[in-house]
Write a structure and sequence with these properties.
The protein is built from 17 helices and eleven strands. The chain is α+β, with helices and mostly antiparallel strands and about 425 residues long. The protein has two domains: about 210 residues, Metalloenzyme, LuxS/M16 peptidase-like (Cytochrome Bc1 Complex, Chain A, domain 1, 2-Layer Sandwich), CATH 3.30.830.10; about 190 residues, Metalloenzyme, LuxS/M16 peptidase-like (Cytochrome Bc1 Complex, Chain A, domain 1). The longest helix is centred in the first third of the chain and has 20 residues. It holds the Pfam family Peptidase_M16.
Length: about 425
C-alpha cells in the first residue's frame, strides 16, 4: 500500500529560464493559503579563497542587512508585519534563502528576493555588525558545544586538495582580515541570476506569478558565468590517524570516517541505506547490539554526509565506563564486516524499503520541503524530476548491492580514525 500512497504524492512543477539565466521552478498547491518564495545560489564554502574562508556563510547573514529600497534593519520587520517568516542556510555547496507568507503576499516575497539579488547594500557597517553575529554563532555552535568540532576535524583530515577541508562557518581571522572590497567582489561574482534558482511554491496563480517574476527579476543583469576548478583527492589506501582535544567534553568519542562518492551517484544512495541499517534508530544493528545488548556504549551512530563532489560516511560512539573507543571501533567493524559478507534478510530489506517510502512521503508533505527539494535537485543534482523519481532509485537498490557497496567503501585501510578526546587539563580535573 505504501507504494500507492507515495505515487499519489507526485509533485507537479513547471520550470523555465529568464533571459538573464535565472532558472525558475513553479509548484502550485492550493491546499493551504500559503506561499513560499525561495532562492538558492550555487555558492558555498567550497567556492571560497583558502585565505578567506567563511564568506558564503557570512553572506547568508549579510544579505539580510538591507537593500537600496529596504532600509537597514527593516527586512525582518517587513516580513513579520505581513504575517510571514523567513530564514536562510549555507552548506559547502549552496546558500538558500526563503520567505513563507500568506498567499496574498506573493508579490511582496518576489520583490524582496529580487531586491536582495539586484540592490544589496554591502557597506562597512553591515560587515561589522554581521561579523559580531557570526562570531557569537561560532562561540555557541562550535567553540562551546560538546563535540562541536567533530565535522571540522574529520573534514580537515579527510581532504587534502578539496575545499571541503575547511568548515562552512570558516575562520574568524579570515573574516576580520577581509576588506569591504573583497566582500563586494564575492557578491558580484556569485550572487547573480545565472548562478541561482528561484522556486515559488504554494497557493499561486501561475500566469500572475510569471508576470511578477518577469517584472521583478527580468531587469537584473546577467553576471559573468561562474567557472569552477575541479579538485580530486587521491584514494585513501591506509588508515589516517589523528587526535583532537576538545575542552568541552569529559568522555572520549570514537570516530571513523570513510570518503564516499558524490551524492548524485547511485553508490551514495546505497550508502544512505547502509547507514539506516547500521544506525538509524534503536532497532538498528549497531545501536541494538553495542548499546542495548552489550552495554558498551552510551551512544552509537553513523551517517552519510553527502555532498556535491564527495561525501563522508562517519561512524561514531561514546564508550561506557570500563570500555574504550578502540573496543567500540572493533565492534563497529564487526557490524560492517557482517554487511560485507552476508546479505541482509528479506524482512530487514522490506523494513528498509518502508522507511524510504515513508521518508519520501514526508519530504513532499509540506510546501517548504517541496520548495527546498526542487531547488536542490535542480542545482546540485542537475535533474529537477528527481523529486518524483529518486524514490525509484532507492526501490531498485538490491540486497546484493548493499553488500557490494559496503565492501567497496567501508574498509579499515580507506578511513580516518580520529581520537576525539577531552583536553588534557580538563581530563585531569
Amino acid at each position: 500500500m505504501l507504494g500507492g500512497v507515495a505515487s499519489a504524492q507526485e509533485v507537479a512543477f513547471e520550470e523555465y529560464d529568464l533571459d538573464n539565466g535565472l532558472h525558475v521552478i513553479l509548484h502550485q498547491d492550493k491546499t493551504a493559503p500559503v506561499i513560499i518564495t525561495s532562492v538558492m545560489y550555487h555558492v558555498g564554502a567550497k567556492d571560497e579563497n583558502p585565505e578567506r574562508t567563511g564568506f558564503a556563510h557570512f553572506f547568508e547573514h549579510l544579505l539580510f542587512e538591507g537593500t537600496e529600497n529596504i532600509e537597514r534593519g527593516e527586512w525582518f520587520k517587513i516580513v513579520t508585519a505581513n504575517g510571514g517568516n523567513n530564514n536562510a542556510n549555507t552548506t559547502d555547496d549552496r546558500t538558500y534563502y526563503y520567505e513563507v507568507f500568506p498567499s496574498n503576499n506573493l508579490e511582496l516575497g518576489l520583490w524582496m528576493e529580487s531586491e536582495r539579488l539586484m540592490h544589496p547594500v554591502i557597506n562597512q557597517i553591515g560587515v561589522d555588525t554581521q561579523n559580531e553575529v557570526v562570531k557569537e554563532e561560532k562561540r555557541l555552535r562550535v567553540d562551546n558545544q560538546p563535540y562541536g568540532n567533530l565535522i571540522a576535524e574529520v573534514k580537515k583530515n579527510m581532504f587534502v586538495n578539496h575545499p571541503y577541508r575547511w568548515t562552512t562557518i570558516g575562520s574568524m581571522e579570515h573574516l576580520d582580515a577581509a576588506t569591504l572590497e573583497e566582500f563586494q567582489a564575492f557578491n558580484k561574482k556569485f550572487y547573480i541570476p545565472n548562478n541561482a534558482v528561484l522556486v515559488v511554491a504554494g497557493d499561486l496563480d501561475i500566469d500572475q506569478t510569471k508576470k511578477w517574476i518577469k517584472q521583478y527579476f527580468g531587469p537584473i543583469p546577467k553576471g559573468t558565468p561562474v567557472t569552477r576548478d575541479t579538485y580530486t583527492e587521491a584514494p585513501i589506501t591506509e588508515t589516517i590517524h589523528a587526535t583532537y582535544e576538545d575542552p568541552n567534553i569529559q568522555l572520549p568519542m570514537m570516530v571513523a570516517s570513510y570518503r564516499t562518492p558524490s551524492m548524485t551517484t547511485r553508490d551514495a544512495r546505497v550508502l544512505d541505506m547502509i547507514s539506516t541499517i547500521l544506525s538509524d534508530g534503536k532497532s538498528s544493528r549497531m545501536y541494538k547490539r553495542i548499546v542495548d545488548e552489550e552495554k558498551m556504549a552510551l551512544q552509537m551512530g553513523a551517517f552519510n554526509y553527502s555532498q556535491e563532489d564527495y561525501g563522508m560516511y562517519i561512524v561514531y560512539g561514546i564508550p561506557m565506563q570500563g570500555h574504550t573507543t578502540k573496543e567500540l571501533l572493533a565492534e563497529a567493524d564487526k557490524e560492517i564486516e557482517k554487511l560485507q559478507k552476508e546479505l541482509i534478510s528479506k524482512k530487514e530489506y522490506e523494513k528498509l524499503q518502508n522507511i524510504y517510502e515513508s521518508q519520501y512521503v514526508n519530504s513532499n508533505s509540506s510546501v517548504e520541503g517541496i520548495a527546498s527539494s526542487l531547488a536542490t535537485y535542480y542545482m546540485l543534482y542537475g535533474d529537477t524530476d528527481l523529486i518524483n523519481e529518486e524514490i525509484d532509485i532507492y526501490r531498485s537498490i538490491t540486497r546484493e548491492e548493499i553488500r557490494e557497496v559496503a565492501k567497496k567503501y567501508l574498509n579499515p585501510n580507506q578511513r580516518l580514525v580520529l581520537d576525539y578526546v577531552p583536553a588534557k587539563d580538563k581530563a585531569q580535573n
